[in-house]
Amino acid sequence: MKFGTKMLSAVTAGLVLAASLASCSSGAATATPTPIPLPEGVPEDVILEAAGIAKDTPLITVDGAGVPAEELLYWVTYSADQYAQWGMTDLSMDMGSGQTLGSYYLDSAVENATLYQVVRNHAEELKMGWNEANEADYEAQLSQLKSSLAAQMGVGAASDGESASPDPEIAAKTDAEYVRFLAYMGLSENSFFHINEVSYLFQNLRQGLYGTKGTEAPDGEKIDAAGVLHAKHILIKAVPVTDESGNVTDDGMASALEKANALYDEITVAEDPMTRFEELMNENSEDVDSSGNVNGGADGYTFGPGEMVTEFEEGTAALAVGEISQPIQSDYGYHIILRLDADNEAGQSKYADIKMNELVDQWMEEAKVERTEALDGLDVQAFYDTLAELRQTMTAAAEAEDAPAATDAPVETGTPVPTATPVG
């Protein structure tokens, strides 16, 4: 598995609203907020209630650093919630090769928790841990999250995401909804921070090592060695011809090649081949997105190994910068490719992505992971079933809290009463 690619995908998700990140403390100095009082029905330790294990109990160690139950079981819950949407709630289901659905969730959780702890360990080792800029961005996103939750629950929060509300009563209700939201996922405020911390640490490492001011900053030679390419192309699609019965009688390749050859000839005899290429590309290329952009935009494609069809990648790599290819066939039809210099902003960013992917994959291969007895004794089905019951209890408590008080005044019928059901 390409763990670096997985980490990059998670980083783009921002705070954990529906996506997933995880980890434990890096030892970096961070502000410790005053804990929000627990709302009615929310246990102080959801993991202890659901799994019989205190939330701070280490379930694995990664190069000696413990990963607490609260974090690792978040990953189990995340997977179980996803599959439950498809009706897959029996965790004893055989997945093949003797693995049950529950053991699959647990193995995946161990892998994910390991990945994030590895990033944390190396961020601390390389002194690229949590910083003031991370803190400011996290607080801004957290405020936006609270506002969004309050709006969903009908509590009434500021719409700009900068502040939950100046009203103390509304602010308290907003905080309560936030804590319920976390508890529903089996998380505390502290673990939610650690979950999201890792995306920032990953970016700190990426910039500190491979950014334009990093210790291994990109240049033309390094970008080329990483396999980063930049190109534009004229795509002439092969349009199959079918008979009345729908059977393909002509794959359309010959017709596409004929048109591509004519365009190529026109480019080669032009006084300025690159300018003519651009003109013919805009007039003829069939690589056009829904917004009408040719090649995805004016700058063309900047890509790394394996990101494009093989024929396109190999065809581009075979050219010198500024060289134009003869028509090259792929399953799509024929491409006339213009290779451009990849030493630009997009190429530098792609270089950083590729090098971080490689480094994280290496770290994962080298990591020493040890499971604890507490993990080996965990009953995943019982944990998830009990968590489901706790969720129902928390939801009922929230609904009861928001129910209108008894009154002798007449009540207008047909007016819905908003509830504060936690978001899952």
Automatic annotation (TrEMBL):
Pfam families for the chain: Rotamase
Signal peptide positions on this chain: 1-28
Keyword annotations of the record: Isomerase, Rotamase, Signal
Region (Disordered): 398-424
Family annotation (SUPFAM superfamilies): FKBP-like
Chain ranges of the PpiC domain: 226-341
Keyword Signal set for record: yes
GO MF entry, a single one: peptidyl-prolyl cis-trans isomerase activity
Name of the featured protein: PPIC-type PPIASE domain-containing protein
Organism annotation: Intestinimonas butyriciproducens
